[in-house]
Amino acid sequence: IHETLMELQQRQLDSLRSWLTATEDRISRMSEPGPDWERLRVQMEQHGQLQEDLERQQRVVDALSNMVVVVDENSPESAGANSCSFSAAYSQMEDQLTALGERWAHICQWTEERHNKLRELNSRWTEVRDECQRQGAWLDSREAQLKQWEVNPALEMGEVLNRIRKLQ
């Protein structure tokens, strides 16, 4: 029964290792945020998908991190030479689990940092876009005002000074 359990757990570790490798490859192909708002929006969508995948994989990671190996000291496997091979296999499995846990933690940390960076850039981009729209509206109103003055030229110096103040 221990061999079957170990084989099952090893398959789970192998599956997680493959998933982590694929995810690390996916991350390595992600470009730096930007350079424009449309690309940033696409990157935010891709990042959201990555976060969803991490949340789904979290159950597998939790199950593996709670993996418990039970050794029956009365079983024939735990006596003699087999005891050493089982102990080595368990130790190897623990080492694999530790290494996979470190990779998982690194992916989670990178994902959180990128999320914060994307969110901050999106916020700043929105501020810049809003300010550009505000400035554009201000320029449009000044242009309309100048066109109106062009149609109705000022004849007196006082009126000219008044119009200059309005432009400012």
TrEMBL record:
SUPFAM superfamilies on file: Spectrin repeat
Name under which the protein is recorded: Dystrophin
GO terms under cellular component: cytoplasm
